[in-house]
Amino acid sequence: MRRPRRNRQSAAIRGLAQETHLTPSHLVNPIFLVEGSGIKDEISSLPGSFRLSLDNVFQEIEESMNLGIDSFMMFPKIPEQRKDKTGTYSYDPDNFYLKAATEVKKRFPECALISDVALDPYSVDGHDGIVRNGKILNDETLEVLAKMSVAQAAAGFDILGPSDMMDGRIAAMRQALDANQYTDTSIMSYTAKYASAFYGPFRDALDSAPVEDANIPKDKKTYQMNPANKREALIEAELDTQEGADFLMVKPALNYLDIIHLLKENYELPIAAYHVSGECAMLIAACQNGWLDYSKAMPETLLSIRRAGADVIITYFAKDFARMYKEGLIK
Ligand code: PBG
Fold first, then answer.
1. Residue 331 covered by a domain
2. Distance CA 257, CA 260 (A)
3. Which position among 45, 46, 91, 284 has the lowest Cβ density within 10 Å, counted as fewest Cβ atoms?
4. Which pTM value belongs to this model?
């Protein structure tokens, strides 16, 4: 009789039969940067994550690297008075986010530093593109994204992360980067980014939600993907691949494991999954209530994203996972 249980009978045998492994080298730690110093401000809807000033970012990176996490995705919280309709501060040479990137790379040259390319942190309207007459303008936005990309490459970011979902952005960025000799700067494209309800805590962290105004679209559904669609992700992946992306990302992760699997099966580029703020917040809340055990539910969650096909996982749990891994609690 065939008995699959034979392969589960001891920890040693389970280890031999284990199909999927997750290690800290697969993880990216997202960081929220604020201007100033001495700031470590917890995000109320995402306990355990903080808005950090640069001095504390240094500490966060050092701690993470000591735990085996070498990759970081940095997001800026832009002061209201620096926002405008077209996001000009995003490529201002005095931008504190760009300067911070340079400092981080000077101090930690071996880390991989990933940027955010989108207008929403810099936009008075809170959208990823330029808004005019109630519409998000695609091609005008590309010009800003290209300038932002060159500025970020110049600042020292290793990988640029376009999270905006404008059409043609990878080509526009790649062209601008190459024309300015930034041929080694990579692009991790948010390929299949869905118009999801699970970005709430992130928008709280950066104060980047679409503003409430009759002339401003109240959601991002004209550019982020419809959660009902799967085949459309293949169109986005095909375009990003042709246009020169180096990584394809699916976002969110947990509700979209099928999309991660689909892209992994159909494309050769490494697949990243963004385990987004709302997905992390749900688990934290359940654990705080005593309904789930964090030390078990958290690693199982990350492992499932990896099993679906993610080569890279961006998660607010990166450090906690790496700590458990270092202590030998994870195989
Ligand atoms: C915006 C951006 C968002 C996230 C990353 N980049 C939010 C949005 O699209 O509104 C969300 C990440 C998270 O929820 O953890 N360009």
1. no
2. 5
3. 45
4. 0.97
* Per-residue pLDDT, 331: 87
Only one residue has tokens 């679906």, namely 308
Q: Which atom of ligand 1 is nearest to the CA of 119?
A: 16
Q: What confidence tens digit (pLDDT) does each residue in 212-271 have?
A: 888 899 999 999 999 999 999 999 999 999 999 999 999 999 999 999 999 999 999 999
For 293, the token pair is 């055990």
Ligand 1, atom 11, residue with closest C-alpha: 199
Give Cα 158 to chain centroid, integer Å: 14
Catalytic residues: 193, 251
Please provide residue 203's backbone torsions phi and psi, each rounded to the nearest 5 degrees: -70, -30
Domain with 236 in it: 21-326
For the CA of 278, the nearest atom of ligand 1: 14
Q: Which of 205-219, 232-246, 268-282, 305-319 has the lowest mean pLDDT?
A: 205-219
Distance 280 CA to ligand 1 centre (A): 13
Is residue 14 included in any domain, yes or no?
no
Distances (CA, A) of 10 to 139, 195, 307: 58, 44, 22
The CATH number covering residue 269 comes to: 3.20.20.70
Q: Is residue 8 part of a domain?
A: no
Q: How many domains are there within the chain?
A: 1
User: Residue 217 Cα, ligand 1 centroid: separation in angstroms?
Assistant: 17
Is the pLDDT at 142 greater than 90? The verdict is yes
pLDDT in tens, 253-262: 999 999 999 9
> Please, how many CA atoms are within 13 Å of residue 323, restricted to the half-sphere of its CB?
9
Atom of ligand 1 at shortest range from CA of 193: 9
DSSP states of 15-53 as a string?
HHH------GGGEEEEEEE-SSSS-EEE-TTSTT-EEE-
Q: Is residue 54 part of a domain?
A: yes
